[in-house]
Amino acid sequence: MIRMKRKITLKQIARELDVSISTVSKALRNSPEISADTKQKVQAFAKLYNYRPNNIALSLKNRKTNTIGIIIPEIVHHFFSKVIRGVELVANKRGYNVIIGLSNESFSKEVINMEMLANGSIDGFILSISKETLQLQDYHHFNETMSQGMPIVMFDRVVSDINCDKVIVNDFGGAKSAVEKLITNGCKSIALITTKDYVSVGKLRTQGYMDALNDAGFELESELILKLDDKLDYEVHLDALENEIEHLFKSNKSVDGVFAVNELYALSAMKVARKLGLEIPKDIQVIGFTDGVLSKHSTPSLTTVSQHAQVMGEKAADLLINRLETEHNENEDETYQTVVIETDLIERKSTK
Amino acid sequence: MIRMKRKITLKQIARELDVSISTVSKALRNSPEISADTKQKVQAFAKLYNYRPNNIALSLKNRKTNTIGIIIPEIVHHFFSKVIRGVELVANKRGYNVIIGLSNESFSKEVINMEMLANGSIDGFILSISKETLQLQDYHHFNETMSQGMPIVMFDRVVSDINCDKVIVNDFGGAKSAVEKLITNGCKSIALITTKDYVSVGKLRTQGYMDALNDAGFELESELILKLDDKLDYEVHLDALENEIEHLFKSNKSVDGVFAVNELYALSAMKVARKLGLEIPKDIQVIGFTDGVLSKHSTPSLTTVSQHAQVMGEKAADLLINRLETEHNENEDETYQTVVIETDLIERKSTK
DNA sequence: ATTTGTCACGAAAACGTTTTCGTGTTAAAA
DNA sequence: TTTTAACACGAAAACGTTTTCGTGACAAAT
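^ inputs. structure came back:
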């Protein structure tokens, strides 16, 4: 049976050594007020009993928790977990902890989670907006949080209505250069597989696609654009997804290039193409938009637009902590910045 | 410019309403001591100003944070992120928050992270041991944490030296039934691709493999066992991994079945097999051990042993919270339990 | 002998709660 | 009229820190 020795406090040290709590505190912080003798005695005792200041008490006293709250729609997702890793990395380096909340793409869970954390548990938020919130366009909880003096940094899924620091991917540019790559590689009829427009990133990627076609003098054919309703969880209903894509291919036999706004769509496109007897990349070339793990290990491996998720997390954490650690004058107008992370085109075997 | 209205406290409400702090507190908690009039007044005021008790102050007062600390080796990993989701799910349901720390497979980071959180930030730990810690076999930080009265629940990577609640996968059984499946499917020469033995799960899966062969009257051929050093990050050095596997196949042409202890090894085996002109599952059948996303989307899709990561997380959270919420008599000997999560064989296209 | 100054330490407040106990006021019982 | 009881509220302690300010002892300077 293990001997229980509860964490020791200043008060207990003070009692043992027959000095006051203040003296112990000062001795441990090496205050010049305290004599060398006493310091030595106190420090030795503290080390022996492995004294560590209680974080909660410190948080209360300093009105600062040194903890960052992350709210994301889903954690079982490479993009988001990479962002978390980035946040954790710089947070830890700068002396902060990270506490996570999952909204599960639900508005109410997002609100509840934020309220729980906002009541003193954390100093600021890093978050990506849930799909439901984006649809409802109800952003009161963000504004309320910020009006209470708690800063927010949004990443990836952001919205221009909210005034705060943001870290976003150059979705437009990434999509455009992907499509340009397809054009350069000789594609004449390029399909787009995307989501409904309310998710800002889907919209921007669609615009990048259109812009690239436009610049190259291609005509925009709406039959080549497949807008999927991501209400449906295609991880579960893979066949539904594949049917949609198969329909696209069959009614547009000339398609020789595909740009998909995420990894799953791209892989499904490749799968369907193969099923229809098309060779990749000879007959049809495919590019996805993602930071996922599937691309690298698919057959053929998938050329993708990398979003540098971890860098986004790091940047978001830096933005937040910088704001937390600069004195904000009461009446000075805050000025927020939006950091754009550039994408990289990672060429693999699904393009020529 | 947004108007700043800092979070309101009991003291401020008390001052505004010209009553004492105690009265406000009691009124809000509907104490019978307080008159209906006063209650009404206080509650209305509190609602108007959206009063919420400060979590930190409550934690300090109650010596209970209602927060769980998770320490995992890596978050960009489907297995671990699914576990987190499970933990988060039941933690939230039961009124707890989750704070994460990444050890990054490093002993020192594991120790530091635990110390940070153990100083009052959390009520208990859920963790999976880092590889480096497993190698060093230095578990003092776990024992110290527990001796301070902070419970630990370990999952997946556990060690029998430590006395605490545990949630593990039936690695032995899962591996055994996978290999049995291969045997049933007609495989005569089954290779094993595994890791070095210090990670307990690798060891157990290897034993499952051997036991299945043994039961079936097969002879154990050591050339069929490939033990890979996972010091090398094979995500980065994929070619090195594939070379090893290619060597295995070339020097054992008779191999018609492969059991791999993780997803990456299994996929690489399939890739190499294809490269060598073997058809899957006709010429060679492959089964992996994982909860990952690659298996489902690979070509052919991979038959795997599912570990039910989310269930592990849920179970671990329940174990921890149960322990936190039962009065533990000072001198009563604690008794710990180990929950074994059974695996499922998910049959896909890499087996007949 | 008195003033000044330094040294080494302790008391107390503060952070935001909850809770125990005490107390003044009023109405009912003796 | 006096005692008792219920009622409604406030003071204070506690959780574990840090920090400001005050103070007693002693030595040095006047």
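Residues 194 and 206 of chain B are 7 Å apart (CA to CA). Residues 19-23, 26, 33-35, 38, 57, 59-63, 120 of chain B lie near DNA strand D (CB under 10 Å from a C1').
thumbs up if we can close this ticket
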